[in-house]
Amino acid sequence: MASLKAPARLLELVKAAFAKALADGDLFYFATQVQDMRVGALSFQLRFSPALANKPKPQPPSPKRDAAAPSKPFDPFEYTSPPGPLFVGDVGASHFLVLNKFAVVPGHFILATRAYRAQTHVLEADDLHATLACLRACEEEEEGVSDGNDGDGALFAFFNGGAHSGASQPHRHIQMLPVRAMREGLPAASAWRVLMARRDAVAPFTTFAEDITLSTTREDLYAAYLRLYQQAVRAVRGEDEFAPASGEAAISYNMAMTRDRLVLCPRLAEGGTVTDPDTGAAVGTVSLNGTMLAGTALVKTEAEWEALRRHPRALTTILGSVGVSEPRFIDDVNKL
Questions:
Q1: Distance CA 133, CA 7 (A)
Q2: Residue 67 located in a structural domain
Q3: 169 φ/ψ angles, rounded to the nearest 5 degrees
Q4: Does the residue 336 lie in any domain?
Q5: Sheet of strand 296-299, all strands in order from the earlier edge strand to the far edge
Q6: Which residues form the ATP adenylyltransferase C-terminal domain (predicted)?
Q7: Which domain does 47 fall in, by range?
Q8: Torsion over CA of 288, 289, 291 and 294, rounded to 10 degrees?
Q9: 283 and 307 in contact (C-beta within 8 Å)?
């Protein structure tokens, strides 16, 4: 089967669409403060966006005239013809690209299924194939452009699946973040790198990974995903567990894809409590989605921001509690 094609000059297209949608009031951009945090031997981004705590609720379409008809749940990724102002382009016949209406990272865009597919179900081969097409398009566009962190690639893609993954919408979608935009606000000397782009990275949570390439076939990519999914299921439910390769996923998990790695992380919780380091009182909760596989975390209140900045090990504790704990991380910390 021939490789899918994403729109040409994808990053440039997204940047232009983002600027227009922002100017027209069709999306919201929430600027953040950012600080490097140590998580064992890793550099993690902690971002703070106070405005995000009060983000506007998405407005559903006007109700139908027939008040007796059952109401349909609002779906922000429902494909319409003609497409709305956040539309970026198509990726094959089954997927399309749309801007994230509530962005923390400039140029945050989303790959969604044109027909409704459940976010809680095991992914299908075309979902992964279309994701790789976006990664390939961005790498081709950025070829020859160096910012000193070429190992991270141009695009970070992630998926939130299940109740503990940070998922917020039932319509299947995979999110895309331009890596250059993810570095905005960091000091020039920052050691931050896309976490799962590093083969030597040991995080507090267990992950399963396989190497891929931009030319990996649809069939091989899907087979790699299913192998990692089965490993993640066994890590949560026992070595003898085998989960069906379709239908409702057996566990919550995050998936991340870069230009040369496919990673799955089984999830046991969505987040953890932030406590004041002086009083021990709870000041908030950090919720984590697939961006933790990039090495980022987001807080929405000043109390959470200050507590974690003053007590960085609290972030490490939360990261270790949301998935299956990683013994190698504990060993690495003890060596520091």
A1: 9
A2: no
A3: -130, 140
A4: no
A5: 33-39, 42-48, 296-299
A6: 203-324
A7: 10-53+77-322
A8: 80
A9: yes
DSSP letter at 248? B
Phi, psi of 57 (to 5 degrees): -75, 135
Distance from C-alpha of 27 to C-alpha of 101, rounded to nearest angstrom: 4
Q: Is residue 47 part of a domain?
A: yes
The tokens for 21 are 């949608």
Q: What pLDDT, on the 0 to 100 scale, is given for residue 137?
A: 97
Mean pLDDT of 195-224: 95
- 40 DSSP assignment: T
User: How many structural domains does the chain have?
Assistant: 1
Q: Is 240 in contact with 230 (CB distance < 8 Å)?
A: no
CATH number of the domain enclosing 159: 3.30.428.70
SS3 212: coil
Residue with tokens 């081969």: 125
Pick from 85, 336, 270, 291: nearest CA to 192 = 291
Q: Are 320 and 329 in contact (CB under 8 A)?
A: yes
pLDDT of residue 51: 81
CA atoms within 13 A on the CB side of 189: 0
Q: Quote the pTM value.
A: 0.92
pLDDT digits (tens, 9 = 90+) for 8-48: 999 999 999 999 999 999 999 999 999 999 999 899 999 99
pLDDT surpassing 70 at residue 2: no
Residue 83 CB neighbours (<10 A): 13
The pLDDT of residue 65 is above 70? no
Closest C-alpha among 241, 260, 259, 240 to residue 250:
241
Question: Does residue 183 lie within any of the structural domains?
Answer: yes
Cα 91 from Cα 200, distance rounded (Å): 33
CA 273 to chain centre: 21
